[in-house]
Amino acid sequence: MVTADGPVRGDISLLALRYAAAVRDGDAGRTTARLYRFNTAPPAPAQARLLGDPVAARQLLMAAAGLDRRGRGGEYTLTTEPATGWLYWRRATGPRSGAVRTRTAGRPEAMRKLYITAKLDHLPLALRAVFQTARQADITVVKFGADYANLRRPDRIVLYTRDREQAEQVGAALRAALDGIPADTLPFAERIAPAVFSGLDPPPPPATAATRASWRGWLCQTLAEALHQAPPDSAELAVAAAMQRCRLLGLDPASWRVDDGFFTELPGAA
After folding, report:
1. Do residues 87 and 101 touch, judged by C-beta distance below 8 A?
2. Surface-to-core class of residue 252, CB atoms within 10 Å of its CB (0-12 exposed, 13-18 middle, 19+ buried)
3. % of the chain residues with pLDDT over 70
4. In terms of pTM, does the model score above 0.85?
5. Would you state the pLDDT for residue 103?
6. Domain range holding 246?
7. 25-71 pLDDT, tens per residue?
8. Which ranges constitute the DSSP H helices of the chain?
9. Per the structure, how many domains does the chain have?
10. Hey, is 122 helix, strand or coil?
C-alpha cells in the first residue's frame, strides 16, 4: 500500500497512478500516455465550436493575449518552426535556440519551466495576464496549445525560466496576476501557486542533442515502467512500486519538487 510519506489520499497524482495501475494492459507506452494526459478536460460542445478550428482558435487566443494577427506583441514573435501541438512565442532579444537553460556542470543543460493551468473557459483572460507578466519578467519563451486537443490539457500554457529562483519569482507574480481565475490541477509537477506548477526538462542525450524529453513526459515514462514491473494482479503494489521508484530517484511524491541540479545528481549521470 502507499506509505505515509507518499501522496495524500485524493492527490491528483495518486489518482492518476491508481487509474493507470488498474487498467494496465501490458503496454507501458499506453500507460505513459494515460499518466501524462490525466486530468485533461473532457470535450465540451460550446468549447469545441469556439476552439475546434485551430486557425480560428489561434487568432482568438492571440487577440486575447494582446498579440496582433501575425502573432507579434511587444518583444514576442510567433515562430515558424514546426512544434507539434504547441504555438511558440520567442523574445527577440532571447537566445536563438529558445528557452533560457539551466546549466548543470559538465553536461547539457536542463530547462526550468512553469506550467499555467487556468481553466479553459478562462484561458483568454489568463493569456493576457501571462504575457504581461512574461514581459515584465524577461521571459524568453511562452507557448500554449495549438489546437483544441492540446488546449484541453491542464498544462495548457508554459513559460521557460532561467532557474528555480526566477521560476519562484515569476510564480509569485502570476499568483497575483491570476488571482480569482479558476485552475486545473496538474499531476506530477510541483505546485508553486494556485494556477502555476513547475518542472525541469531533462538534458537531451548527447548523441541526439536535438531531441529533448519534457519533465512530465520523462517522469510519466519512468512511473509507467515501474507500474509494469509490478505484479499485474495488484494495482496497490504497482502504485507502491512507482512511489518507491520516485524515492530512489530522490523525488518526494507528496510535492514533486525538482531542483535545478536534479539531473546532474541523478544516479548514473555522467
Report:
1. no
2. middle
3. 84
4. yes
5. 45
6. 1-270
7. 989 999 999 999 999 999 999 999 999 999 899 899 989 888 887 77
8. 12-22, 28-37, 45-51, 54-65, 123-136, 148-151, 164-177, 215-229, 235-249, 262-265
9. 1
10. helix
